[in-house]
Design brief:
The chain has about 325 residues and is α+β, with helices and mostly antiparallel strands. It has helices at about 25-30, 115-130, 135-145, 150-155, 165-175, 175-250, 255-270, 275-290, 300-310; strands at about 5, 15-20, 35-40, 60-70, 75-95, 95-105.
Length: about 325
């Protein structure tokens, strides 16, 4: 019987699945008919069909029957109903075509319908929590609520369960329904635990990033303030030096110079942020612009003055 190899996928019995056309050769696609039966068999590692050997296949698979073909975005999808689990024998690989024989496996029904229902409800609850914040989460919740059994639930979410390829095969190979269902549930519990940890880490990282940003912003603001203060101090220092120089050069009498020096000292202590800064600045500016130096003695020409007065009168 023709084999459909699958990887990183969990497929169980009594479930409807869609199989993409690229798992078949063109010749196989041309000859697939409704009601044709196939063997879906997991492989141990990802390989192209032309690279597969007999040892790449696990020894348990699923029978599947073609139901219909649908067109999806220009590609054919083969709708199939899965049937019994089977033991795989005599795998034969010829190019990209794989065939094998099989024998049907029997499930051990060691769980009640009530227990199975409770497990399904728990699985659905986890699945709904998983998708609630995803785009299309509302639609996905509706889809989850329509799952009829754990096989369907696990097949639909099997690729996302927190289990490796060997664990997927262990689920498929389990004869005991109880063991199979608990393995499935353990997978989604682990997935939810991983999701919670990721969210916690993401939240922590987000908080740490926010804190780091705040620290960076504060440091930047402090640098700007420091630069502004340095500029103000430089400006103030230059003003202080300017007034000191003006006082020295003004030629003030001793008492006036002492008073100007006293005000300059207060000006220096007050700083540019002090409330008396403006008053002290104006005082120093005023006293240093006065003409304190004695003017040069000018000679008066009395004869010339007499001539000017007589001319005007």
């Amino acid at each position: 019987m023709l084999v459909i190899p699958v990887f990183d996928t969990l497929i169980l019995s009594n479930v409807q699945i869609n199989v993409q056309e690229d798992v078949f050769s063109q010749e196989e696609i041309d000859h697939i008919k409704q009601e044709d039966t196939f063997l879906i068999v997991p492989i141990k590692e990802q390989k192209e069909r032309g690279e597969l050997t007999e040892s790449d296949f696990y020894d348990v698979g699923i029978l599947a029957k073609a139901v219909s073909t649908v067109n999806h975005e220009g590609n054919a999808l083969f709708v199939m109903d899965t049937q019994e689990r089977v033991r795989i024998h005599d795998v034969a690989v010829e190019g990209s075509r794989v065939e094998a024989s099989y024998e049907i496996l029997t499930d051990i029904v060691d769980i009640s319908e009530q227990e199975e229902h409770e497990l399904l409800m728990e699985f659905k609850q986890y699945a709904e929590e998983l998708v609630q914040n995803l785009p299309g989460g509302v639609w996905m919740k509706g889809y989850i609520r329509r799952w009829k059994n754990l096989n369907e639930a696990a097949t639909n979410i099997g690729s996302y369960l927190d289990i490796d390829d060997k664990e997927r095969f262990e689920i498929m190979a389990a004869d005991s329904l109880k063991k199979r269902y608990h393995l499935i549930l353990e997978g989604i519990r682990r997935l939810m635990g991983t999701k919670a940890v990721r969210e916690e880490v993401s939240s922590k990282m987000t908080q740490e990033q926010q804190d780091a940003y705040k620290v960076m912003a504060i440091k930047k603001q402090m640098r700007l303030l420091e630069e502004q203060l340095n500029t103000l101090e430089e400006d103030f220092t230059s003003e202080e030096e300017m007034f000191a120089k003006k006082i020295e050069e003004a030629g003030m009498p001793e008492e006036a110079k002492k008073e100007a020096d006293r005000v300059l000292k207060r000006f220096s202590m007050e700083g540019s942020q002090g409330h008396e800064y403006g008053t002290l600045y104006d005082y120093l500016d005023f006293v240093t612009t006065l003409s304190w130096k004695d003017g040069e003695e000018k000679k008066i020409n009395l004869s010339r003055a007499k001539q000017i007065l007589e001319k005007d009168h």
